[in-house]
Amino acid sequence: MTDENAKNSGNEMDKNDHRVLGKELDLFVFSDVVGKGLPLYTEKGAAIRRELERFIVDEEIKRGYRHVSTPDIAKLDLYKKSGHYPYYKDTMYAPIDIDGEEFMLRPMTCPHHYELYLSKPHSYKELPVRIAEMAKLYRYEASGNLSGLVRVRSFCLADAHIICANNEQSLAEVKKALDLITYIAEVFGLKKGEDFWYRLSLGNRKDDKKYHKDDKIWDESEEILRSVLKGQDVRFYEAEDEAAFYGPKIDVQMKDVRGLENTAFTVQYDALAPGKFELSYTDSDGKIKLCTSVIHRSSIGAIERSMAFLIEKYQGSFPLWLSPVQVKVIPVRENHNAYAKEIFDMLIDQGIRAELDNSDENLGKKVRDAKNNKMPYWIVIGDKEIEAEKITLESRDNGQLGQLSKDEVMTKLQTEIKNKK
User: Do 185 and 266 have their domain in common?
Assistant: First the structure.
């Protein structure tokens, strides 16, 4: 077992580095036997992932996305058709020969979603069509680039592809995608312009090997993204030669505790996919027309990279809704165990992630353990609680909250979880 989440270049790491906190809080590990860049999540780390995934899927469905599920593997021909293979083959896993056909672990979901769109005809009344997925992707990053959860070889992307009939729809959908990203960031306590900002990633007209050759399309698509950014009332900068091969993109940038800037989320404009995959619709005049563009967007980015940012932002002290263990129940002595178990069962039954500490350790050590693991709340059960049939609730952030009834505790916890404060 290696400690890839705690490697660095020889300098002592910041105590709030996600690789340090990830180990201290028992969230994830790496193993050379499994493979470099392939994180293994513990029960606690998996709980955070699950909350993030549920949050974004539910929110996207509310906003009109069709959430789907597609395979982690596909024929190599699919990526040749989409045009991805020449650009990404060096960071793809090697093809797998099955019955004389070549398959690949997927590095992206775009062509899978296009094939879903093509599975039935579409009317102009349906467009734009928003296809989304929590997609497991695989990219063979160079060993020297691997860095905890920030850069890995296996990751889950909150991916979506919005198929648009015209530029008017494209413009509107880019705005909506940024609205969604802003909302998610605000839930995490991130401030636009302070904790994150935008980069407009442009193509290079002179480099027709890296980018498709169509100056008119590049000019139009870059101006669409630029006009949206100008309306965001926040700083952005432009970077040439950072676009995808099929079009420009808006990158949402953040810095980690090491001061390194990374892309957290993206919104990309693609004018090539409709032609390559013949993405079409029946217009109001009854004629079949080609869609204008596909907007690629990632609302929460890769779950792995988002977790790294959040671990560092909260310094491991997650808000209640994200905490791996939300409440620890602590009986003072053995004769308090039965009532403590009753409270624990009540919490679990209500969907609250709880832990019962009925070990032989003294009360002080049990409470220190709750604090060291940065748990939002813990409940102490002693003679007074049993006699009053109440609960003494203590908060990581606000200290002792006194004796409360069972209903009062449940209402407080469930309200805080629901509001994601």
Answer: yes
Mean pLDDT of 13-17: 87
If DSSP states are collapsed to H, E and C, what string results for the chain?
A: CECHHHCCCCCCCCCCCHHHHHHHCCCEEECCCCCCCCCEECHHHHHHHHHHHHHHHHHHHHCCCEECCCCCEEEHHHHHHHCHHHHHHHHCCCCEEECCEEEEECCCCHHHHHHHHCCCCCECCCCCEEEEEEEEEECCCCHHHCECCCECCEEEEEEEEEEECCHHHHHHHHHHHHHHHHHHHHHCCCCECCCEEEEEEECCCCCCCCCCCCHHHHHHHHHHHHHHHHCCCCCEEEEECCCECCECEEEEEEECCCCCEEEEEEEEEECCHHHHHCCEEECCCCCEEECCEEEEEEEEEEHHHHHHHHHHHHCCCCCHHHCCCCEEEEECCHHHHHHHHHHHHHHHHCCCCEEECCCCCCHHHHHHHHHHCCCCEEEEECHHHHHHCCEEEEECCCEEEEEECHHHHHHHHHHHHHHCC
Query: What local confidence, expressed as pLDDT, does residue 407 receive?
Result: 94
| Same domain, residue pair 300 and 347 | no
For the cut 80, the answer to whether the pLDDT of residue 390 exceeds it is yes
Same-domain pairing of 134 and 243: yes
- Give the domain range for residue 350: 320-419
Q: What is the CATH number of the domain that holds 189?
A: 3.30.930.10
- pTM for the model stands at 0.90
Provide mean pLDDT across the span 321-329. 97
